[in-house]
Amino acid sequence: KVKTVCSKILANLEQGLAEDGGMSSVTQEGRQASIRLWRSRLGRVMYSMANCLLLMKDYVLAVEAYHSVIKYYPEQEPQLLSGIGRISLQQIGDIKTAEKYFQDVEKVTQKLDGLQGKIMVLMNSAFLHLGQNNFAEAHRFFTEILRMDPRNAVANNNAAVCLLYLGKLKDSLRQLEAMVQQDPRHYLHESVLFNLTTMYELESSRSMQKKQALLEAVAGKEGDSFNTQCLKLA
């Protein structure tokens, strides 16, 4: 319903009418400002719809919705294409389609300057290797990202997971524990804690005591909305 309202107002403005469909007396500059405002609002609505569809696991419609958002936020095209590629890879399991989207991201980011574009391309390559069970190569890409951005939590977490799959449990545990100790407020989130507690279970019969220590650390940093199921205490 919100999308319909936004679309109708935008159509009225583009036809030279007022937002409510009546006659308009605003200047051309004012009209263009209103069009930009309502295009931005419609883009946010479409993005929210795409997120909801993703949570509902309707991946085909979610991908269509994310595609439509690019029209309203062209400056976000690399991030949106990366997201669509990761849906194809991680949710649908379609490696070829994911690879195509990641190649499109690389073409778009070649026109951009800055560190974020390079990190995005490296991250996509790392996830692609993860999807192909090529953990050594994935770890190499995540490590390269950390060289460029040492505080990148996603790269840090996934590099540790790669070490686990490469049979280096101790190294993996050291990396995750170092993350959490270095900056608890930045790194104490659910995916990191789930991986850490899983490794504690693999590493030691004292895993419950270590999980309880993590719970105490979380209690001092997070609010009541924190999902403690990631600590696997039950």
Automatic annotation (TrEMBL):
GO terms for cellular component: Golgi apparatus; nucleoplasm
The keyword Protein transport is assigned to this record: no
Keyword Transferase among UniProt keywords: no
Keywords assigned by UniProt, alphabetized: TPR repeat
TPR repeat start and end residues: 119-152
InterPro entries: TPR-like_helical_dom_sf (IPR011990), TPR_rpt (IPR019734)
Protein name: Trafficking protein particle complex subunit 12
Gene: TRAPPC12
